[in-house]
């Protein structure tokens, strides 16, 4: 049967743009449907605008820290609408670049939300399109638990377009988005409370990193409250939808906030897809089920990125798209390595991590040793700041390979990328030791760990 397209991609985000662009450049006839803005979550309401906000927020601390270096700061003021609107202009510039990139590669961009008619046919705004292969790359959307007053909270989506910043904000959650936005708000001068229902933030990260980062967040001014959960929320003035909110916590106390951000996870964005029309099965939270080759239960339909709910990171979606391209064009079975994916949390201070945490290494029954240090970075000898940095290296005793590296402190995201290469390449502790340090940096600690830094493990 002749189809209109070789490939129809649903969603022009991190994974969808890469897959459609490369497939078209290799000779496929490709269309991509996008219901919102080109570039997806990362470009529009994720990594990119978030990082711009982090830069803005860091100045908030920078002005204070500059005094020790001789700068006098005569009443610097922050204007939210300038930041918000400059950010939006930059994102619109990127949207244009994505449009050109797709157009130049010969990809037809169709505006609108797609849904399945059958395993080779999708419908967008009432018009149908047939394709030999269909790729689902629709990403994820914020999950907000439903409770009395949950309509008065916002998700990260809205944070990028707020009319004004509140005087006092509550952030609920304990993952990447919660700690990143708590840091952003705090640095921009908002009185910020971060409430998490569990014992410690950042589940899945190394325990020392979690403890250390939490302490640093507190020192930076965030009011961190653990084992704290919200019972219900109401408007302070029932006639003012945009006014203050009263939060009733489960411990019985109540408090007023101008803004409440729920950062309580993201779930696959499948509701509008009518997956059942194509016989596509889903699992937990609606995640599209795929085999190793990203093939769904309908053989002509593939899925990757956040919608499969594996690891929700942009470079993962992009690498998955490239692996799928190799499978389609070169018949290479996908052998995606989900171990040793470096990642950074752009909180303040930032966290960089790659490989196993101490707890993961223990649960895998490995015999390993840990080198660990924490120190005051040189900058803070004059800044007057009390921030400290943490670095930690795990070495497998059987083959001397470095199996994990973790850092909390300035530039961790930048530093961890290089360590990711070393660990992926199988570097040993001796290789780290044989590497000459870059001085004076914090990063050099990773190549100067001696027996003195061995952690006594219980
Ligand atoms: C606040 C925030 C900060 C983040 N920061 C980082 C970071 O610093 N680093 C990092 O690596 N990751 C970060 N992420 C995660 C990253 O954005 C995602 O992992 C990544 O965007 C996933 O790519 P994707 O291709 O799976 O989906 P997406 O990029 O989400 O793209 C999916 C696209 O599909 C479209 N779509 C949905 N349904 C349909 C439909 N039916 N028809 C047509 N189009 C549809 C959507 O509009 C969207 O444009 C962040 C996420 C958030 C929310
Ligand atoms: N720097 C980055 O790379 C970056 C930044 C932002 C987001 N992301 C990606 O996006 C994903 C989603 O981010 P996220 O922070 O929303 O999710 P997350 O899964 O990282 O964290 C969700 C948090 O909400 C808590 N939670 C869940 N349900 C709750 C409830 N009912 N009440 C109170 N708390 C609840 C969880 O315990 C957890 O701490 C991340 O896992 C990450 O993969 C990456």
Automatic annotation (TrEMBL):
InterPro entries: FAD/NAD-bd_sf, FAD/NAD-binding_dom, FAD/NAD-linked_Rdtase_dimer_sf, GSHR/TRXR-like, Pyr_nuc-diS_OxRdtase, Pyr_nucl-diS_OxRdtase_dimer, Pyr_OxRdtase_I_AS. Transmembrane segments: none annotated. PROSITE patterns: PYRIDINE_REDOX_1. Its EC number is 1.8.1.7. One of its GO terms (biological process) is cell redox homeostasis. Disulfide bonds join 42-47. Its cofactor is FAD. It is an enzyme of class 1 (oxidoreductase). Keywords: Disulfide bond, FAD, Flavoprotein, NAD, Nucleotide-binding, Oxidoreductase, Redox-active center. FAD binds at residues 51, 306. Pfam families: Pyr_redox_2, Pyr_redox_dim. Residues 341-448 form the Pyridine nucleotide-disulphide oxidoreductase dimerisation domain. GO terms for molecular function: flavin adenine dinucleotide binding; glutathione-disulfide reductase (NADPH) activity. GO terms for cellular component: cytosol. The active site is at residue 439. Residues 5-321 form the FAD/NAD(P)-binding domain. NAD(+) binds at residues 173-180, 265. The keyword Disulfide bond applies. Belongs to the class-I pyridine nucleotide-disulfide oxidoreductase family. NCBIfam families: PRK06116.1. This is Glutathione-disulfide reductase. It comes from Marinomonas algarum. The gene is gorA.
């Amino acid at each position: 049967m002749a189809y209109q397209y070789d490939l129809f991609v649903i969603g022009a985000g991190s994974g969808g743009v890469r897959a459609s662009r490369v497939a078209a450049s290799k000779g496929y006839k490709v269309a991509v449907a996008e219901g919102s803005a080109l570039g997806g979550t990362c470009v529009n309401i994720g990594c990119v605008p978030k990082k711009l906000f982090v830069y803005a927020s860091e100045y908030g601390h920078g002005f204070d820290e500059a005094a020790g270096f001789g700068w006098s700061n005569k009443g610097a003021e922050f204007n939210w609408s300038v930041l918000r609107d400059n950010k939006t202009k930059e994102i619109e510039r990127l949207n244009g670049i994505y449009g050109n990139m797709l157009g130049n590669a010969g990809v037809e961009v169709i505006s609108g939300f797609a849904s399945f008619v059958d395993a080779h046919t999708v419908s967008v705004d009432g018009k149908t399109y047939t394709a030999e292969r269909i790729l689902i790359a629709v990403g994820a959307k914020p999950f907000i638990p439903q409770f009395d007053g949950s309509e008065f909270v916002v998700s990260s989506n809205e944070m990028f377009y707020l009319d004004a910043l509140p005087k006092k904000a509550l952030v609920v959650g304990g993952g990447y988005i919660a700690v990143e936005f708590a840091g952003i708000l705090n640095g921009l001068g908002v009185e910020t409370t971060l409430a998490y229902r569990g014992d410690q933030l950042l589940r899945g990260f190394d325990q020392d990193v979690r403890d250390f980062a939490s302490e640093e967040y507190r020192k930076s001014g965030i009011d961190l409250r653990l084992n704290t959960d919200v019972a219900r929320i109401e408007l302070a003035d029932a006639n003012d939808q945009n006014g203050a909110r009263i939060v009733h916590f489960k411990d019985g106390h109540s408090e007023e906030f101008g803004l409440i951000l729920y950062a309580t996870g993201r779930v696959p964005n499948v509701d509008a897809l009518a997956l059942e029309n194509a016989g596509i099965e889903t699992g937990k939270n609606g995640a599209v089920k795929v085999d190793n080759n990203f093939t769904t239960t309908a053989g002509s339909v593939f899925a990757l990125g956040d919608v499969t709910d594996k690891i929700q990171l942009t470079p993962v979606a992009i690498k998955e798209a490239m692996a799928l391209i190799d499978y389609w064009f070169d018949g290479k079975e996908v052998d995606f390595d989900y171990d040793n994916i470096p990642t950074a949390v752009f909180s303040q201070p930032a966290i960089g991590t790659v490989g196993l945490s101490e707890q993961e290494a223990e649960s895998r029954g490995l015999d390993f040793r840990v080198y660990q240090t924490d120190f005051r970075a040189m900058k803070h000898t004059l800044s007057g700041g009390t921030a400290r940095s943490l670095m930690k290296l795990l070495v497998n005793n059987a083959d001397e390979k470095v199996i994990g590296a973790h850092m909390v402190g300035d530039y961790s995201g930048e530093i961890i990328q290089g360590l990711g290469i070393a660990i992926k390449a199988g570097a040993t502790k001796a290789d780290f030791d044989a590497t000459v340090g870059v001085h004076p940096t914090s990063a050099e600690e990773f190549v100067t760990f001696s027996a003195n830094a061995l952690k006594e493990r219980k």
